[in-house]
Amino acid sequence: MLLLAMLALLCVLPIVNVVAMSVASLQDIVSGKFILWPKHLDFKAYSYIFNTGVFFSSLKNTVWITAVGTFVNLAVTTLLAYVCSRQRFSGRRMILFMVLFTMLFSGGMIPTYLVVKATGLMNSLWALVVPSAVSAFNMLVMREFFESIHESIIESATIDGCNDLGVFFRIVLPLSVPSLATFTLFYAVGNWNQYFAAILYLNDSSLWPLQILLRQVVLIGQSDIYSHLDSGEVIPLPVSTQMATVVLASAPIVVLYPFLQRYFVQGLTLGAVKG
């Protein structure tokens, strides 16, 4: 128990340090004397970020990517999984083969880039949604869950006059709320942290998500990205502003995760075979 407490403390300390540096005064940061919490609190970094338009523009882009991307992910995953879970669907084996093939052999970065460019999705937020519309692994897990639903329930709904869509929306989805919540969490976290695809497909700074803005702030800290974008000036960026950006980019996931943790744990055994 003591070992677990020490490991938990080691995980928490870097987070506390980042938060502390985001509210530390320049004097405390330069002196480097504070360990866990600064002596003089200074919220100018947060005030500076909130008074610039770039942060809220990036936040809006990230929220859009997360909301739309998660909806598309869930829609495609559940519909495809349901189709593949029905034994009487003649093309299910071919679809499953194609899904498994993508897990073993990826299309590659350059071919994917060329497809995105050819379809006119470059410099569009849809470029971060469409290419990753479905996860093959998540689809297979969801399919296993759908197959675990007793066939008699579906047969009863069919006898009562439900077609396939009626069975899916009225019977299968209500029974799948825990699994849907799990995959919503997985997809939402992945979409919120969109980084590499944004670097590849977004050249317009007005379309940057938070993670790209965070990269610019942290890795190019010697130039003030906010002033550079808003007024063309280049001013040294304080460390506290960099850390404040880290806090604001991570805060939504950190705040929501404890409330969704039970779904995350449930997702570890979702689709498992019962002994």
Short description, anyone?
Pfam families: BPD_transp_1. 70% of the residues lie in helices and 0% in strands. It has 14 helices and no strands.
Describe the structure.
By secondary structure, the chain is mostly helical. The protein has one domain: Orthogonal Bundle (MetI-like fold), CATH 1.10.3720. It has helices spanning 2-22, 26-31, 44-50, 53-85, 92-104, 109-118, 136-148, 151-159, 164-175, 177-192, 196-201, 210-219, 225-230, 239-268. Helix 3 (44-50) packs across helix 14 (239-268). The radius of gyration is 23 Å and the shape is globular. Residues 59-260 form the ABC transmembrane type-1 domain.
What is the H/E string? HHHHHHHHHHHHHH
The overall number of domains is 1
Main sheet record: none
Mean pLDDT: 80
CATH architecture: Orthogonal Bundle
Got a strand count? 0
- Any idea what the shape is? globular
Total helical elements: 14
Q: What's the helical proportion of residues?
A: 55-70%
- Structural class of the helices, strands and pairings? mainly alpha
CATH class: Mainly Alpha
CA radius of gyration is 23 Å
Instruction: Please give the alpha-carbon distance between the first and last residues.
Output: 31 Å
CATH topology: MetI-like fold
Residue stretches low in confidence (pLDDT < 50, at least 5 long) are 231-236
CATH evolutionary superfamily: MetI-like
Q: Strand fraction band? A: under 5%
Subcellular location: Cell membrane
Main location: membrane
Membrane topology: Multi-pass membrane protein
Domain ABC transmembrane type-1: 59-260
